[in-house]
Structure prediction request, 107 residues.
Amino acid sequence: MKKINIKYYLILLFTAALFIACSNDDDVTTVVTGYQQTVIPTTIEDLYQARGLAVKDTVIVYAHGGPTPSLDTADAEESQFQNYYRVYVKQAQHINQTVMNLSLIHI
Prediction:
C-alpha cells in the first residue's frame, strides 16, 4: 500500500514540476518594427512568374532558397532548361518588401 502512495506522489510531484517549468516564458518580449502586413494577391498569376510555353510536357518549378529582395530568374534563364515551361514562385518578401527591413528587438 505504501509503494502505491509513493508512486502516486512521485507522479504528482513530477507533473507539478513540469507545469511550473513550462509556464515560464523567460520574460522575453519580441517587438517587430517597420512591418506592414502582407496582403496576399487575389489572383494566382501574381504569385509567380512563368517563362516558356505553357503547352510544354515538362514544367520546372523554381523556389528560391532565399531570402532575396527580388525574384531572380537570371541563372535559370541561362541554363539548359530553355525547352521547358519554367515557373518561378515568389516568396513573401517579393510581394511585401518591408519584410526584408524588419528589426527584431528583444526586451
